[in-house]
């Protein structure tokens, strides 16, 4: 089966160069062949689950790639590998042909060099997928036509202030901002939703006991069994709390967009539960904490997130494009060959997992 998103790209003239690895069961960066690494620091892992798309785009192996997110699988690897990536509004891109974990959380989005590229790619892949009931004809406006001087943008306490100052210099009204909501345990709501939805997808596999011999993150058998203990009442209560969270977050959006840490777990949970779009933007680099002897060009990337209300992806894209028009962090290239004579890439720690079993 050809994925819907691939059909859209192919119809626009895109050429499939490679199929990139995801973390096993779309979680983290461990897969059956090893573990994906960060091109900016080869001794560091890329995080996941969209590990291959982030690392390959960062390394310059492809101009863009498509990844997926249930909870952080676009934002985390994009931030670690220093690329620009868009997690669009839920339902923007059809998911037919893509392995699903949670019907109410999963999203597809592009990893690119720049926000301009993200705008081009998402414009191609967005739209109604006839076989995905959650997809919709998105009303995303043209981000290239947005007058950012008419926007009011908030910034959270953890926002990168350099981004705030740059956008302010471009005429954007910048104001302090805080998300207001009363729902307790946002992470608990996400975990309940994701675990139960995932168990529904892998129910037969888990009942068969084959999850015990699966060469992947060894928490999955426990995770799936724990999900089976969640009662219908608890799940429904979690969904009620989720609906209240969606209402409160939408009501607290007194700005056109806001800036904050793209990998803060609370915001990752809120963004995915509510369906907020966010674009991850590289904003700088720092030296690694323990560089190899003899010097190194390896770096730790710094990023920020530009968030917008649902179906206002074009606002986040326009602000990211404005920031990148006067900065060059997104144009930097990682030292992918920076491996000294005394360096050793550490074991990927998958040796502890049992070997894969094929057949009876």
Key attributes of the depicted protein:
360 residues, alpha+beta, Amidase signature (AS) enzymes, two-stranded antiparallel sheet, 11 helices, 12 strands, globular, disordered C terminus
Q: Any overview of this molecule?
A:
With 360 residues, the protein is an alpha+beta fold. It has one domain: Amidase signature (AS) enzymes, CATH 3.90.1300. The protein is 33% helix and 16% strand. The protein is built from eleven helices and twelve strands. It has an eight-stranded mixed sheet with strand order 5-7-6-11-12-10-8-9, sandwiched between helices. Strands 1-2 form a two-stranded antiparallel ribbon. It has a two-stranded antiparallel sheet with strand order 3-4. Strand 8, helix 5 and strand 9 form a beta-alpha-beta unit. It is globular. The two termini are 26 Å apart. The C terminus is likely disordered. This is Amidase domain-containing protein. One of its GO terms (molecular function) is glutaminyl-tRNA synthase (glutamine-hydrolyzing) activity. InterPro entries: Amidase, Amidase_dom, AS_sf. Pfam families: Amidase.
How is this structure best summarized?
Residues 3-254 form the Amidase domain. The protein has 360 residues and is α+β, with helices and mostly antiparallel strands.
Question: How are the SSEs ordered, and which strands pair?
Answer:
Elements: H1 4-11, E1 30-31, E2 34-35, E3 37-38, E4 41-45, H2 51-59, E5 64-69, H3 75-81, E6 84-87, E7 107-112, H4 115-125, E8 152-155, H5 161-169, E9 173-176, H6 186-201, H7 203-208, H8 220-228, H9 232-252, E10 257-260, H10 265-274, E11 278-287, E12 299-307, H11 313-324
Parallel strand pairs: 8-9, 8-10
Antiparallel strand pairs: 1-2, 3-4, 5-7, 6-7, 6-11, 10-12, 11-12
């Amino acid at each position: 089966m050809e994925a819907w998103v691939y059909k859209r790209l192919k119809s626009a003239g895109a050429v499939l160069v490679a199929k990139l690895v995801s973390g096993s069961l779309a979680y983290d960066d461990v897969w059956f062949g090893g573990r994906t690494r960060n091109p900016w620091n080869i001794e560091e892992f890329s995080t996941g689950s969209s590990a291959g798309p982030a690392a390959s785009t960062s390394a310059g192996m492809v101009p863009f790639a498509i990844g997926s997110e249930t909870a952080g699988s676009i934002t985390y690897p994009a931030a670690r590998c220093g690329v620009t990536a868009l997690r669009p509004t839920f339902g923007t891109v059809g998911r037919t042909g893509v392995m699903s974990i949670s019907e109410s959380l999963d999203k597809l989005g592009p990893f690119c060099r720049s926000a301009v590229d993200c705008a081009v790619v998402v414009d191609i892949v967005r739209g109604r997928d006839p076989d995905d009931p959650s997809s919709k004809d998105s009303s995303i406006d043209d981000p290239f036509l947005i007058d950012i001087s008419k926007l009011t943008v908030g910034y959270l306490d953890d926002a990168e202030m350099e981004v705030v100052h740059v956008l302010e210099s471009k005429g954007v009204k910048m104001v302090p901002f805080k998300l207001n909501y009363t729902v307790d345990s946002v992470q608990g709501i996400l975990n309940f939703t994701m675990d139960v939805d995932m168990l529904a997808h892998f129910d037969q596999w888990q009942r068969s006991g084959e999850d015990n011999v699966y060469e992947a993150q060894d928490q999955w058998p426990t995770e799936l069994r724990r999900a089976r203990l969640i009662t219908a009442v608890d799940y429904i209560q979690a969904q009620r709390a989720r609906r209240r969270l969606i209402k409160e977050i939408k009501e607290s959006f007194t700005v056109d967009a806001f800036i904050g840490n793209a990998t803060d777990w609370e915001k990752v949970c809120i963004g995915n539960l509510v369906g907020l779009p966010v674009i991850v933007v590289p904003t700088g680099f720092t030296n690694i904490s323990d560089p190899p002897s003899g010097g190194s060009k390896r770096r730790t990337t710094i990023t920020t997130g530009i968030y917008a209300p649902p179906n206002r992806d074009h606002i986040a894209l326009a602000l990211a494009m404005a920031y990148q028009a006067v900065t060059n962090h997104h144009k930097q290239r990682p030292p992918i060959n920076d491996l000294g004579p005394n360096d050793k890439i550490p074991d990927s720690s998958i040796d502890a997992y049992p070997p894969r079993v094929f057949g009876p």
